[in-house]
Amino acid sequence: MDYRPRPDDTLFLLRDVLGAGAQLRRLPPFGEVDDALLAQVLEEAGRFVAEVIAPLNRPGDEAGCRWEAGAVATPPGFAAAYRAFREAGWPALSADPEHGGQGLPAVLEAVLYEWMAGANHAFLMAPGLLHGAYDCLRHHGSAELQARYLGRLASGEWLPTMALTEPQAGSDLGLVRTRAVPQADGSLRVDGGKIFISAGEHDLTENIVHLVLCRLPDAAPGPKGLSLALVPKVLPDGRRNAVACERVEQKMGLHGSPTCAMRFDGATGWLVGEPHRGLAAMFVMMNAARMQVALQGIGHLDAAWQQADAYAAERRQMRAPGASGGAPSAIAEHPAIARILDTQRGWVDGARLLAYRTGVLLDVARHAGDAQARDRAQRWCALVTPVLKAACTQQGFDGASACLQVFGGHGYIREWGVEQHLRDVRVAMLYEGTNEIQAIDLLVRKILPDRGAGFSAVLLELRDELDAAREADADAQRRLAQLRYLATSVAAAAPARAALPYEVADDFLRTAMLALTAWAWARIEAVAGGDPRWTRPAATWRRHALPEFDMRLAMVKRACQEAAGAPPG
Questions:
Q1: Which residues are catalytic?
Q2: pLDDT in tens, 236-266
Q3: Host H or E run for residue 179
């Protein structure tokens, strides 16, 4: 069963729950963006993903990529699908019109990438970095580099890579050894090797634009000494650059995406941004990638749920409790299976609302005329992005496993397809900063420096959007208040024990995601009007997933009490 996007559900969340159209129309670039336009773009995107991208998922997984003498062939059909993707204008969806883009809101691109992940994650890996590379070059590239590369990246004519990782330098980028030596003509000579480079070599485009973290000769040790270089596969004069793909990794999943080990042997490149300020330039790309990875978790969980839901409606085993007659019931009627399906549905739509809110606020942060509105939006995006990246990818994997359980033994067999989601989504917990690093980023780098003041401000804004008269809203408000207090508790206890924030970071992030999702469901139910399509998964999620909030809360509080020397209790 191929994945099928559900534009109507997405439009309900964007239009009816978030009021996205009205928010976007207040921004100068989007004065003509109305609900009808949102609906039209979503409908066309859903059709393209379902008809062109999704049917290649399983064949691509089975065929994989072929490496021979440095050249990589993607699975049959991928190149033609990418041409169709580019010709339809999807890569340019949110790029600036002055660079050939359509200038549409970032949240629409977010939805497109979520659907593509659910339909065919391996295919998404090649164009997935386009917007991040485009933004990186737009903000930090020289006028010459922008003139040569921006339009081609915006249109998808050329595809980028993000070349960070080396065998000895994974999460600790300060250990990067790739060297870049300035040349008399203003270019750089780049030497070194990179691993785990998604789409480092392929047959989808004629040129590949590598954005490479490297060190200049006068670089200080550690991350502050890193620079960023643009190193194309094909040089401006048409010659092949000294960039080679040494191998394609054999992976647990994403078989249709070439993960490459790359070698730069005196390759020609050009500096992006200031010398020794490479991480600042690269983080523009990495932050965009982290939001997209969160959406990958949501997309996979939705796809696995669709397969499990369809199977459960047809598979008949035994008679469900309370069922009339003697015939076996569809397993969807059995409480154990209904619990799995509704709980995972609850995770999908609750996380979606948070991700879509973030997509809207990304545009507010970029385009709002009011400085305070921009600051509030940026604060939300900075604090919530690591929560979504870690929690949505974790739930994507755990939820796909739960959906596989619905199939029983059949889920373990490739024929049914659900096991591919389990394999493909697992990497999302690892790349663009492991989930443990996301938790540390949230608590240690973003909450503790101001003792939770900015985090508290975000939670108070959420509280003010709820109606204390409604039971679901009041419960969500209570959890937001508990989360605010937890942040200040960690801040108060941390000076007594330096390791404390690092030890509780994962539990704190999970607590935050549960509270945010409870808020999301309160917002959804307030608009859903009793529609069981929304109220049933909301009730099941609260009953079977939300109690984890109290457990995680207690774990962090106990650690804080022990660090402060108080008796736990």
A1: 432
A2: 999 999 999 999 999 999 999 999 999 999 9
A3: strand 179-182
Closest CA to 458 of 390, 357, 555, 545: 357
Residue 281 contacts by C-beta under 8 Å, 6 or more apart in sequence? 136, 139, 140, 228, 272, 273
Which pLDDT band holds residue 568 (cuts at 50, 70, 90)?
Answer: low
Question: Which two tokens mark 397?
Answer: 């994997």
Q: In this predicted model, what pLDDT tens digit does every residue of 88-147 receive, in sequence order?
A: 999 989 999 999 999 999 999 999 999 999 999 999 999 999 999 999 999 999 999 999
**pTM for the model:** 0.96
CB atoms within 10 A of CB 50: 16
The amino acid occupying position 93 is L
Amino acid identity of 103?
A: G
Contact yes or no for 5/115 (Cβ under 8 A): yes
Interstrand relation of 208-215 and 159-163 (parallel, antiparallel or unpaired): parallel
DSSP string, 384-443: HHHHHHHHHHHHHHHHHHHHHHHTGGGGGSGGGSHHHHHHHHGGGGTSSS-HHHHHHIII
Q: Which domains does the chain have, with CATH numbers?
A: 7-139 (1.10.540.10), 141-146+158-276 (2.40.110.20), 434-569 (no CATH)
Nearest to 314, CA basis, from 50, 3, 5, 1: 1
**For residue 468, what is the DSSP state?**
T
Q: Is the confidence at residue 325, as pLDDT, over 80?
A: no
Q: What CA–CA distance (Å, rounded) separates 267 from 40?
A: 45
Q: What is the 8-class DSSP label of residue 498?
A: T
Classify burial at 372, counting beta carbons within 10 Å of its beta carbon; exposed 0-12, middle 13-18, buried 19 or more: exposed
Bridge partners of residue 71, in order along the sequence:
68
Sign of the C-alpha dihedral computed for residues 234, 236, 239 and 241 taken in this order: negative
The one-character DSSP state at 328 is P
Going 438 to 196 to 275 to 234, the CA torsion angle's sign is negative
Residue 55 to residue 567: CA distance in whole angstroms? 59
How buried is 464 (Cβ within 10 angstroms: 0-12 exposed, 13-18 middle, 19+ buried)? exposed
- Residue 536 sits at φ, ψ, to 5 deg, of -65, -50
Measure the CA–CA gap between 391 and 385, rounded to whole angstroms: 10
Number of Cβ atoms within 10 Å of the Cβ of 335: 10
Contact 525, 534 (CB under 8 A): yes
Structure-block tokens of residue 171: 């999460």
Residue 162 pairs in a beta bridge with 211
CA dist., res. 299 & res. 115, Å (int): 6
CA distances from 438 to 283, 390, 392, 443, 489 (A): 14, 6, 12, 9, 20
